[in-house]
Design brief:
Elements: E1 5-7, E2 14-18, E3 27-36, E4 40-41, E5 47-49, E6 60-67, E7 69-75, E8 79-85, E9 96-103, E10 113-117, E11 120-121, E12 124-128, E13 144-147, E14 149-150, E15 153-157, E16 160-169, E17 179-181, E18 188-190, E19 202-204, E20 222-224
Antiparallel strand pairs: 1-16, 2-13, 2-20, 3-9, 3-16, 4-6, 5-6, 5-13, 6-7, 7-8, 8-12, 9-10, 10-11, 14-15, 16-19, 17-18
């Protein structure tokens, strides 16, 4: 990973876009590298999709750090998906590679969602599995999408660094599509993703204009309150 983006809540910095078409309602994969800067309560979202409007049942999907745990939730008149890791991730000097995959079409409920950290599938302290073929709200047309904030308030903003963000629309993938164990060092390191990103998929490399999609889909994001620093030659 050659570039990262620093999210500083004091700057009210975040990325946003609105979906112009509906992608898969059931299946998708998020892959990203994250370095923590402070404790979050779960209200500060790494990813948030949905209006979170009271008259609509607060429809939303999110991935977040809740204290030292990682959680993935879908909410529509109650939690329809809720996973929180049993493991704690408390190293503020480390980069964590997180993969969250969803596929509610699976017959076995425990195969319908998963969280991986540094290539390892996690165990969970609490679980609510989506119903088979349920809409997990990652792709509804006209839904607002945010990276680094909760939809309802700019008071809930993350502090940390994000790098090499992928969203793959319509395919559930494991971590080996995005990273591998280095044969010499034994470290978990990124690799080039070679597959399709699907209709609403994107790849944010942060090696050009902030928010530019590198997947070929032109699913660009609007950057708010970021500044850039030139890299070394």
């Amino acid at each position: 990973v050659e570039r990262s983006l620093r999210f500083n809540s004091a700057d009210s910095a975040y990325l946003g876009r609105t979906l112009s078409s509906s992608g898969s309602a059931t299946t998708g994969t998020y892959s990203f590298w994250y370095k923590r800067s402070r404790v979050h309560t779960g209200a500060e979202r790494i990813f948030h999709v949905g209006t979170y409007a009271s008259g609509e049942g607060y429809p939303s999907f999110h991935i977040a750090f809740n204290n030292d745990y990682i959680e993935m939730h879908c909410y529509l008149n109650g939690y329809t998906l809720a996973l929180q890791t049993s493991a704690k991730f408390r190293d503020y000097s480390a980069w964590y590679h997180v993969v969250c995959k969803l596929d509610s079409t699976q017959g076995t409920n425990t195969n319908r969602a998963a969280i991986y950290v540094n290539g390892v599938q996690q165990e969970y302290s609490s679980t609510t599995w989506p119903a088979q073929n349920a809409n997990v709200l990652i792709n509804t047309n006209t839904s607002p999408c945010w990276i680094g904030r909760r939809n309802t308030s700019v008071n809930y903003l993350i502090d940390g660094y994000l790098a090499d963000i992928h969203f793959v629309d319509g395919t559930a993938l494991g971590p080996d599509s995005f990273a591998e164990t280095h044969e010499d060092t034994g470290q978990w390191v990124p690799i080039k993703y070679s597959g399709s990103h699907g209709t609403n998929g994107y790849h944010l490399k942060f090696d050009g204009a902030i928010g530019d999609d590198s997947s070929g889909n032109d699913n660009d994001w609007t950057a708010t309150n970021f500044s850039t620093t030139a890299g070394a030659d």
